[in-house]
Specification:
425 residues; 5-stranded parallel sheet; 13 strands; elongated; 17 helices; Rossmann fold; alpha/beta; single chain
Amino acid sequence: MSTVEYEIKNTTELRYAEDAIRMAELENMRPLPRISVHAFCESEELQRVMERCSHDRRMSKVGLRITSGGIAAAANMFTTAPTPNLIILETKAGAASLLSELAPLAAVCDPSTKVIIVGYYNDIPLYRELVRNGISEYMVQPVAMPDIMAAMATIFVDPDAEPLGRSIAFIGAKGGVGASTIAHNCAFGISNLFSTETILADLDLPYGTANIDFDQDPTQGIAEAVYAPDRLDEVFLDRLLTKCSEHLSLLAAPSLLDRAYDFEPQAFQPVLDVLQRNAPITVLDVPHAWSEWTRSVLGSVDEVVICASPDLANLRNAKNMMDALRKMRPNDKMPHLILNQVGMPKRPEISPSDFCEPLETDPIAIIPFDANLFGNAANSGRMISEMDAKSPTAETFSQISHIVTGRIALKKARKGRLLGLLKRK
């Protein structure tokens, strides 16, 4: 390898490493509050970066507008219009003329409006002069999407705020594939393995089974939370939770058909916000449905796990869900895939390799069909690890718990039970 090729290879690897670090930092970033942002872009590169920002789930509450133009376009627009919470300006002006070009905009800018400038000169004295004149941040091109998001978070997210817990949503590619059973066992495993306070929220209000699986009969649960968002706080949430084990609490579904459970797209968002503020881990058991509110839930969580059985209908549905979620979550990791009920007697199946090829992903776990183990656990209101802690299936649930929480697996999975560990960089 020549010296030039070696330097190019090292530069490329360094860039990929830096991008991975920035994406990891973005993954841990709190969602931005409800603010208005107007970006003025002189280059197509920044326009693409801002458009990518607009599709990020952490920007769901942000009203973002993108306009071609620079400082002059911004000053002209805000002469007759109120300024937003944040203005992002791209400019090629240097130190000698930048402050004078900003003067007309400063004259029409609301005092509370923050300004981020994206320039082309790496000039420390210029940066200090801009900050001294009220500019919130000066960034040098090229900038990436994580850079812009981090700059906005620095301005609008309280650094002293309590960290948000992680949210993990489980959903089946088809009804009856065992997604709820997997979600419940993983929630139980996470709470036990890591001694972490965990909340399991059953979002299947008419047919939820979490209360049965944990042998509980709560009088209140998620219905009271979702129908009374104005009352929802830590005290009210604590009244609705049912204790299942030392570190696991349940927000149960009513499992009644006395009403139709039709919800607005953002109906569950206040519930998720309170749950994430009150527990390090929230596991969501999402029903097999495709509505505006399920799309909203799946688009806002940290991790999505799709559970499927190895047949053609599951393959079609899993493919459609993967494609839809990739579009909804372009800046997040791909959804995890779990193959369940594998090896059911007398049932023709698609092999795991053939099932996963069109999905362009590998399953994080393959769970074999075991009617006796799962049936006895369900009928007795106990989890798999309580029934047989040393079984291969219990070990698989332990490995899944490590993966979806981003922890390093402590034990090596048995061959054939786990195809790969997805580790955070």
